[in-house]
Design a protein that fits this description.
Order of helices and strands: EHEHEEHHEHEEHEHE
Strand order of the largest sheet: 1-9-8-5-2-3
Shape: globular
Structural class: alpha/beta
Distance between the termini: 23 Å
Number of helices: 7
Length: about 240
């Protein structure tokens, strides 16, 4: 049965430090069990701060046996500073000299598929395949409860079959994005939320209360073995 952990830290810095240490441990456990760890990263302030913490202790993770994917990405040119991939390379992968063959970014709008976002999403779906299981899927969250690029009352959030979809009308700019969906998120062994800020408190409480994922997408994400919420006091303020 899947385990739920809700951890509340004094501040975002403590949240990130603990998440980084636990991420390194989860990767080691996956490598011990299966030889290679498979992870999905997130952007946002906490997601990138976690990568910086891992870069500061490069020996904590054997990155030569980690396959890295992303939960979502802005469909903009590769050099756009808003891309999660570019921020992750600056924070971690460029620092440690990661093997490019192990890093699997989502396509950019000036990549092999050009501006064809549907083709780009299909290509990433082929890469992910039907059997890939993430050992850890990291998630940030918006104040309305969105995770990856799965927003309330959208087709992407309702998707039950495709593992990767194109989003043409994201309510948060830019409008065009590529995202993993619930079918692949929820086959992850562990799903971790990195959430801070008072504007997230209502969504955190809704997820813990078993809300409908159509209303609060964060409520629909669960690991098969463990779901962990890393929260600061402001984000946890509405919990019982």
């Amino acid at each position: 049965m899947s385990e739920l952990e809700t951890l509340i830290f004094d501040d975002p810095a403590e949240l990130v430090a603990t998440a980084a240490a636990r991420f390194a441990d989860a990767v080691r456990r996956a490598q011990d069990a299966r030889g290679t760890a498979v992870v999905a990263l997130t952007g946002g302030s906490n997601g990138i701060a976690l990568l910086r913490a891992l870069a500061a202790d490069p020996g904590s993770v054997d990155w030569s046996h980690v396959e890295v994917y992303w939960g979502d990405e802005r469909f903009v040119p590769a050099a756009d500073p808003e891309r999660n991939e570019g921020q992750a390379r600056e924070a971690l992968f460029g620092v440690i000299g990661a093997d490019p063959a192990r890093i699997h970014p989502m396509p950019a709008s000036d990549g092999d598929h050009g501006d064809d976002i549907a083709a780009a999403a299909r290509a990433y779906a082929e890469l992910v395949g039907d059997d890939l299981v993430f050992d850890v899927h990291l998630l940030g969250m918006g104040g309305e409860g969105h995770i990856n690029s799965l927003f309330p009352h959208t087709a992407a959030t309702a998707e039950e079959a495709a593992t990767v979809v194109a989003v043409e009308d994201s309510p948060k700019p830019p409008p065009r994005r590529i995202t993993l969906t619930f079918p692949v998120i929820n086959r992850s062994r562990e799903v971790w939320f990195l959430v801070s800020g008072a504007e997230k408190a209502q969504a955190v409480a809704a997820a813990h209360d078993g809300a409908d994922r159509a209303d609060w997408p964060c409520a629909g994400a669960h690991g098969t073995e463990r779901t962990v919420w890393f929260l600061d006091p402001a984000a946890a303020a509405d919990l019982p």
